[in-house]
Amino acid sequence: MKKTILITGASSGIGKETTLFFAKNNWTVIATMISIDLADDLLTIPNVCCYELDVTSTESIESAKDKILNEHKIINVVLNNAGLGYRSFVELSEDNKIDNIVNVNWLGVVKVCRAFIPVFREQNFGQFITISSIAGLVNLPLGSFYHSTKQAVESFSECMSYELLDFNISVSTVQFGNAPTSFQANVTKCKATKIDSYNRLMDKVTAILHKKTKKNTNLTPIITKTLFNIAENPNKNFKRYTIGFDANFMSFIRRLLGYKVFNSLIRKSVLGHF
């Protein structure tokens, strides 16, 4: 029987590439997005069904869920992919932008999982895969908001996994570095200020991230293939998957060096401070 995956944030970036990969490999893909107007060419792709779903809205999730279950009797996997970035200094951060990233990156995952746990429980099987980030494992400059939401996703997913063991529901998170998608270009950043130190740091961090993104030319297909393998082979126990050289290297170095030395390394390489 053909398997079915629901993907949030499927209209662009990793979400869209994963949608296309699964559809090509004979999965039915429930591609969800904040507005159906963003579906574009996905509406014509075989094995892809598009639905409007705003992960920040319980009402939107429930409405989409009703429509989806009316047309798809079984869902094998829910992939929490929807996410956004916010690069700002704590002092200059704005309430609406903080609320937005928390509502999408963390509470969006919570609300989608909460909605589909009963579906998986009644089926007595299912799998939640959540796109986290290397930002969920290590802390880097100007990541106060993005990193904290990803670390929240890691903790939430691991805690939730214990609750779901008796129902044959698998939970995993996936971390990777900067994939060559539109994500970095769409990251919200605070404006230039009169504080020279802040402006220099913002420029330096932004340049580093864009440089890393351009280098990772082969990362996106590796991510989509890995997500496919995870979906095809659910792990009973909670598992974190780390994809790509950058993410694996950062994770390894952080564990190897310990907090103090790793922190010193970041200060020296990014800030020029020992």
Automatic annotation (TrEMBL):
<comment type="similarity">
    <text>Belongs to the short-chain dehydrogenases/reductases (SDR) family.</text>
</comment>
<keyword id="KW-0560">Oxidoreductase</keyword>
<dbReference type="InterPro" id="IPR002347">
    <property type="entry name" value="SDR_fam"/>
</dbReference>
<dbReference type="Pfam" id="PF00106">
    <property type="entry name" value="adh_short"/>
</dbReference>
<dbReference type="InterPro" id="IPR051911">
    <property type="entry name" value="SDR_oxidoreductase"/>
</dbReference>
<dbReference type="InterPro" id="IPR036291">
    <property type="entry name" value="NAD(P)-bd_dom_sf"/>
</dbReference>
<protein>
    <submittedName>
        <fullName>SDR family NAD(P)-dependent oxidoreductase</fullName>
    </submittedName>
</protein>
